[in-house]
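From the shared-data thread, chain only:
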Amino acid sequence: MVYLLLALFGGLSGVTTVLFGFGGGFVVVPLLYRVLGAAYDAHDAAGEAAMHIAVATSTCVMVINALAATRRHARAGNIDWPAIRTLAAFIGVGAVLGAGAAVAASADLLRWAFVVYLGITILDCLLRQGFMSRRNSAAPRPLAPAQTVGGGLIIGLVATFLGVGGSVMTVPLLRRRGFSMTRATAMANPLSLPVAIAGTATYMAMAWFRSVALGPWHAGYVDLLAFAVLAVGSLLGIRLTSRYIGRIPDRLHARVYIGLLAVVMLSMMLP
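Structure, as tokens:
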């Protein structure tokens, strides 16, 4: 039953990856945190590290999701590679720093940081102009050097700390530079790759360095069985959803994006 649930939510993460650039973290982290909390005693090693395992496994699933969704969007011509190439490099640097900080943090701190971060992002998107709607005549503007360097480092650090891929920061950023929701969410996928790769490698290395023993079927903090089931489900979700790329009206796309963030934030606030 648990693995069926993981497969279903893996499929949902594939859907959100293609349509909203989420990379799976917003779906995988809350689900896996709940599953691990129910499966292990609070004093068991895996139970104590439930949030770390959820975040680490999320970054691993993100590698698969981001690669598959990037391939689909690239075929549809939705990715402006020159606009994001340098930003991706700085996101990768920030990702290594964020993963190290997350391993050193407590599970409760990670959970509530996740909630606060989502709340701030939702308010920012609703209250500041430039996200909910865009002028049809506005041409996308390149990122300023300060946004590329500083923004990339911050996005990588925060995204890997929370295991969410960074789309919640890159989509609003690109949106306010004049990109449509379709293109902004499309470009969030390759920008999630450096977060996913650096985060996964760092979580594995840090668990080994700290001599954390979580039992078989774990690679560092990554739950390999959960990863396999989630990855299969997500690839199926990506395949089934790709036909809808570019077909959602821009304003509706932005509204649904905010709504999904609110649902995930509420789920993480529940005891």
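Strands lie at 218-219, 222-223.
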